[in-house]
């Protein structure tokens, strides 16, 4: 089984679908879908697009061979960095307000 076939199989299992369910959704026979999943058949671009849409993924996401756990870890790191950035932005705004207040105090005299 190739990496793409494994990913399609994993996605199918995550949805709780049988090979028959997916084959019907793709309007192909069960053996034809089984060959896609096992890597026996090369999949054309049109079929890849159809499969990616079925699972709610972009074509790039479908073809990506990265580890889902690694992806989750990276996303957690991105989320943490976004929180830290937002906190820093609040600090910058507070400092800008202080600078404006000081400037106004200096020019009132």
From TrEMBL:
HTH cro/C1-type domain sequence ranges: 8-62
Protein name: Helix-turn-helix transcriptional regulator
Signal peptide (UniProt feature, chain positions): none
Record InterPro entries: Cro/C1-type_HTH, Lambda_DNA-bd_dom_sf
PROSITE patterns for this protein: HTH_CROC1
Pfam families: HTH_31
Domain of life: Bacteria
Positions in coiled-coil regions: 71-98
Sorted UniProt keywords: Coiled coil, DNA-binding
Keyword Cytoplasm set for record: no
């Amino acid at each position: 089984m190739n990496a793409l076939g494994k990913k399609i199989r994993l996605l199918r299992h995550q949805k709780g679908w049988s090979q028959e369910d997916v084959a019907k959704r793709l309007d192909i026979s069960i053996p034809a879908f089984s060959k896609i999943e096992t890597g026996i058949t090369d999949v054309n671009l049109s079929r890849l697009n159809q499969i990616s849409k079925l699972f709610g993924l972009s074509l790039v996401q479908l073809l990506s061979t990265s580890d889902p756990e690694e992806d989750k870890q990276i996303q957690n790191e991105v989320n943490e960095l976004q929180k830290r950035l937002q906190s820093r932005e609040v600090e910058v705004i507070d400092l800008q307000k202080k600078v404006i207040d000081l400037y106004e105090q200096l020019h009132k005299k």
